[in-house]
Amino acid sequence: MSLPYREFYYPLNVFMHILTHEEGRVLYLHYGLFTQPDESIESAQERSTELLTQRLPPPPAKILDVGAGLGTTLSRLSARGYDILGITPDEKQIAMIGRPDVQCIRFEDLPPQPFEAIYFQESSQYIPPDPLFSQARAMTNHVIVLDEFSLRAGGTLHSFDAFLDAAQRHDFRLTEEVDLSRQAAPTIDYFNTRLERYREPLTRDLGITNEQVDDLIESGIRYRDLYRDGTYGYRLLQFNL
Ligand SMILES: C[S@@+](CC[C@H](N)C(=O)[O-])C[C@H]1O[C@@H](n2cnc3c(N)ncnc32)[C@H](O)[C@@H]1O
Q1: What is the longest distance spanned by two Cα atoms in the chain?
Q2: Which pLDDT value is given to residue 1?
Q3: CA distance 104 to 94
Q4: Helix (H), strand (E) at residue 83
């Protein structure tokens, strides 16, 4: 079986495989933001993209999509008349997106150029906060972030306080903060309730080991607990110079 996402980095390939089988297609690599328990993950993911796009300046603004993933948000915005550049350091994603307006590069390495807004939809977690805001400072006065953070000690995600401090050190003011933790957390349940069921296809089609599936099940349960006890949280943030 030829799977275009087989070589995506682990565990993204696992989540792609489950989503592909369950939903028939995968548009996004980000959390769904659920408002009803029986809502589909795709419509919950669309809610996240909607929240993001509502905050952009109107087209034809020049926008940078950091961590373009599967390119869905980028192609929607491009169709709406935005002048948009997408970047991701993952050439497997680039091959799947198949668009000339997506470059294979890390944000930290992108030569500075002006943008009316830069957004990080679940890509800020891969970039240390100081390089992120110093690079952003050289390119824009408007940063939008949707991501999860460690709100207190005990987690391994970016510390929320350290992230806000880094923004301030580089002259960015926090102009909006929306707590989306309760809406995001059911996404973890979505995968936790399916991993065991997909053990066989995951090992057969992706070459994932049984131990890796066990680890994912265990870490999924721990992760959900960290959301439940408030160690982890999910935020929409806007920063302006
Ligand atoms: C969880 S995915 C989110 C993808 C997409 N934004 C979405 O919402 O569906 C994280 C994305 O960040 C990208 N990424 C990881 N490290 C990065 C870096 N240093 N610079 C830019 N993008 C990065 C990944 O390749 C991937 O595209």
Answers
A1: 50
A2: 63
A3: 7
A4: strand 83-88
